Amino acid sequence: GDSVTQMEGPVTLSEEAFLTINCTYTATGYPSLFWYVQYPGEGLQLLLKATKADDKGSNKGFEATYRKETTSFHLEKGSVQVSDSAVYFCARSENSGGSNYKLTFGKGTLLTVNP
Amino acid sequence: DAGVTQSPTHLIKTRGQQVTLRCSPKSGHDTVSWYQQALGQGPQFIFQYYEEEERQRGNFPDRFSGHQFPNYSSELNVNALLLGDSALYLCASSLPPNTGELFFGEGSRLTVL
């Protein structure tokens, strides 16, 4: 079935290091793609999104580009901070008609950034 | 502007019992979805409510049921609890038209002993 596969964690980086978290998806059709973030003790929140091929979503220094040819949506940040430590989830939407969408999530990648 | 609020935040039940979790969506949002997040896993879609009806359902047994009220708030009920139902239950709200952008609450942590 349709799914989302993301890089296994945990990922540990030093402050100012470059971050990549890989995400690939399978889908029939053209889903929208998302990265959600879960900070310690908080709920999931949307980090960025892309709704069609070649779109680039960006927020808080994070970027991800919707690549239809490779069915990927890798998350990148040029210089991570300690405050970026969180669990990151890649997700794709699935529409069952009308305005009824649901999200399929990857398993999450725990990122720890050390000072 | 209040976001999505859920209650209770934590609860402990024993096998065979029943539980009701509650959710108030973000102001102005009329669609509520429920997700189950097991430890170390991504959220799994349970079901979605819109206009007080269940519109979509994930791969969960009939022990999981829900309701949406005229004020758009929602309840998730789980009967005959199993140990495997222990998880964080997330409520998310959205406002159509949307492409799946959801606003999540902090969740209700259910432990089944």
Protein architecture, described:
The complex is a heterodimer of chains A (115) and B (113). Chain A has 115 residues and is an all-beta fold. Helix content of chain A is 0%, strand content 51%. Chain A is built from no helices and twelve strands. Chain A has strands at residues 3-6, 11-14, 19-21, 23-26, 33-38, 45-50, 56-59, 62-65, 75-77, 86-95, 101-105, 109-114. In chain A, strand 5 and strand 6 form a beta hairpin. Chain A is globular, with a radius of gyration of 14 Å. The model of chain A has no long low-confidence stretch (mean pLDDT 91). Chain B is mainly beta. Chain B is built from no helices and eleven strands. In chain B, the strands form two sheets. In chain B, strands 2, 4, 5, 6, 9, 10 and 11 form a seven-stranded mixed β-sheet that branches. A four-stranded antiparallel β-sheet of chain B has the order 1-3-8-7, with no helix packed on it. In chain B, strand 4 and strand 5 form a beta hairpin. The N and C termini of chain B lie far apart (37 Å).
Keywords:
heterodimer; A: mainly beta; 4-stranded antiparallel β-sheet; globular; B: 113 residues; mainly beta; 11 strands; 50% strand
Reconstruct the topology from this structure.
The complex is a heterodimer of chains A (115) and B (113).
Chain A: E1 3-6, E2 11-14, E3 19-21, E4 23-26, E5 33-38, E6 45-50, E7 56-59, E8 62-65, E9 75-77, E10 86-95, E11 101-105, E12 109-114
Parallel strand pairs in A: 2-12
Antiparallel strand pairs in A: 1-4, 3-9, 5-6, 5-10, 7-8, 8-9, 10-11, 10-12
Chain B: E1 5-7, E2 10-13, E3 19-24, E4 31-37, E5 44-50, E6 53-57, E7 64-68, E8 74-78, E9 87-94, E10 103-104, E11 108-112
Parallel strand pairs in B: 2-11
Antiparallel strand pairs in B: 1-3, 3-8, 4-5, 4-9, 5-6, 7-8, 9-10, 9-11
